[in-house]
């Protein structure tokens, strides 16, 4: 273990509130000089989707997944009290009132703080997501790269 | 890293079964002389709510959250097989039969073992929870305090 | 902390996709010479169930749990987009197309790589699961054994 502190988060969840928690911890850790990686896999990839409809060639099943999954951070639902999509609006109203930072801006902030945002290539394949559908300036890697980061640090979370 | 062993758990979930897992691990670690912190954030704060109705001034939205969220550990639902609230009763019947310890007593036990119970102030704000609505003898802090504990240990879990 | 790298995963979830993530990380870590333990607790025990109906003496409640919970890895549902059981079929079709490895084979692979698969005895009791209902060549232990493994390593995940 080196002297550099390191925080590595697997973001598996596609829930708005869980992704918020991941990015709040990541931004906090970056502010305290940790080297921080967020490895987005499965539904967590949705946090990295661009919100426009990118035209790419897809199979029927990939198109279905593409349509059913939220397109970008601000379209994600809540893990609790989602109320058919009304919950996120409630949370966002409350967040606005308390000057809390929306997820999409937490992601921007993470990029500015050099948090390494990684998209898991294996699950991109499975869900039919292509590189140009995801945000710019992210990395693409697999579980080996995740482990290489994780084994160097001690704050390792699966969210 | 110091010689003292340390376990730090983020309890994000408001599910009875997940909170049980968190407190069982915490109590186990405390018994093995770890310094243990449970940092309650988002729905995990509900585990710390007093079960009576505390009169505090709240906005309309805060009142709604307050009413919809479970008031205390024993009111929480299950992450699986909740069956509109019947699941928790089933689990509790089975727990009783096997002399397993209910969550509310696991929390007491944790306090007796000096597990540090922390309520995340940022999400208390968001959900409109006030200090006197939560259990006595807990701490109030933010993500910086969480990271300060987490970076000193290696058993770091997000539940 | 010893020089041997160690990855310890608590598999709490009974979701097919989360269990896949756990086993993909475990197999990756084993390939990189980590000593790996997966501690199956609560609904995560279902990943270890044999798919046949084993005749054992059970109470009424235990029988109910036994019937309602998925019997083995390939019967588990998804954490997102489960669509009353249609989601897992979609995912498995897509996995087949991409030559991704089904969960049941990821578990076999883990056993071949000497990943230590542990069933949590306390939650086996609660859910009424008996040793001969679970896969062969797994271990049976409690939270103390989990902590003994976890405190020696730094990649500690709760899934």
Topology:
The structure is a homotrimer of 159-residue chains.
Chain A lengths: L5 E6 L4 H16 L3 E6 L19 H9 L17 H12 L5 H10 L3 E5 H7 L11 E3 L1 H8 L4 E4 L1
Parallel strand pairs in A: 1-2, 1-5, 2-3, 3-4
How would you characterize this protein structure?
Chains A, B, C: It comes from Gottfriedia solisilvae. The structure is a homotrimer of 159-residue chains. Chain A is α/β, with parallel strands linked by helices. The first copy, chain A, has a single domain, classed as Hypothetical Protein Ychn, Chain: A. The first copy, chain A, is 39% helix and 15% strand. Chain A has 6 helices and 5 strands; from the N terminus they run E-H-E-H-H-H-E-H-E-H-E. In chain A, strands 4-3-2-1-5 form a 5-stranded parallel β-sheet, with helices on both faces. In chain A, helix 1 links the parallel strand 1 and strand 2 (35-40). The first copy, chain A, is globular. Chain A starts with 5 loop residues before the first strand and ends with a strand. The model of chain A has no long low-confidence stretch (mean pLDDT 92). At the A-C interface, helix 2, helix 5, helix 6 and strand 5 of A face helix 1, helix 3 and strand 5 of C.
Jot down its keywords.
DsrEFH-like (chains A, B, C); 5-stranded parallel beta sheet; homotrimer; Hypothetical Protein Ychn, Chain: A; alpha/beta; 15% strand; Peroxiredoxin family protein (chains A, B, C); DsrE2-like (chains A, B, C)
